[in-house]
Design brief:
264 residues; binds fe (ii) ion; alpha/beta
Length: 264
Amino acid sequence: MKNNSTYTARMPDARGYVGYTDEENRMWHDLISTQLPCLEGRACDEYIRALERMEFSRDRIPQLPEVSAVLRDHTGWCVVPVPALISFSTIFELLASRRFPAATFIRNRDEMSYLREPDIFHEIFGHTPLLTDQRFATFSEAYGKAGLAADPADHAMLARLFWFTVEFGLIRTAAGLRSYGAGIVSSPGELCYALESDEPQRKQFDPVDALRTPYRIDIFQSIYFTIDSFDELYDLARQDLPAHIQEARRQGMHAPAYPHRESA
Ligand SMILES: [Fe+2]
């Protein structure tokens, strides 16, 4: 979720296209060329298959109407440009109507491997492929609807559920632990850390447990939640999320597993 921005959104023209510079397109090329070889054995099969469906260019930043055309064919989703600053309510409204909000700027070269806020590489490469997967798409839409119906006091709680699944989720497969979270699959550093480091905790996903878990946005995660199948997300879309929030409030927040300040 987005709060303080140091970047300026790139505004699309009437056709929805942004005139990226050669340097911006080179940045995309360098990011995608670095990330693709890291995915094997680390990203889950559903993500790899979904990425193949997207057919992203290596040489230029994909334009949002091109990405939307593929999403529409599979699940009826599209991706829409948003300013760097958007509220929880706007995010929920967009997701509830199968529109994924995407920042349109691409990071500066000095933030090649560490990014303070999501850019178009994270949004397009990290998020949009799995929106072609029906189970994942159904969960994302239900999440937006739950957010729209929720009391604003519960928005930060719901943000944790998104964080520990869509952004930083892991999945257990027959071939071993893999990632499906957009924040992981779009980050070479965190992809290795999340799956191979001894430092973070890896817990079986439980919605109430995830709602009770604080996180920081500016460091690699201290805790990852692991699902066994995308069916778990599909089932979660049909569960009573307000009841889970109530139960999480009753049990109280976990102590942070990371040092220093809490960001959410
Ligand atoms: Fe994200």
